[in-house]
Design brief:
The chain is an alpha+beta fold. The chain folds into two domains: 39 residues; 81 residues, OB fold (Dihydrolipoamide Acetyltransferase, E2P), CATH 2.40.50. The protein contains three helices and five strands, in the order αβαββαββ.
Length: 141
Amino acid sequence: MASRQRPKAKLIALALAGSAACALALLIAHSIIATPRVIAGNAGPQPSQAESPTAVQSQSYQGMLTDTRCGAKHSATIGMTASDCTRACVHGGEQFALVDGDTVYVLEGDAAALKHVAGQRVRIVGTLVGHKISVASVATP
């Protein structure tokens, strides 16, 4: 009976040692990834407060005002203009979008002003965060 208990004890000890080794490896990997490193003293320029992510400036963007569903290509088979299609898609739950070449920006702001120029080429002034522009003003060029 003592011989049967020893292999179980060895298996339990081996499992505990393996678990401890895995936990230690994860802890080391997390500390390596989470710690910023400077290589050979080359930290590069530090951003000033004007360049910090919290200091966002308005910029001007131009492109086609559309929606996130259709993008630059509205279906001609539905029999609507680009303006009507954009308004219908936004009414159906899509968001306004600005298409500039291959880039699509999601727009947030005054929905009435955006609806007024939907489907047209526009100039937007706003702040960009990621791929979302907070619209300050919109006009046709």
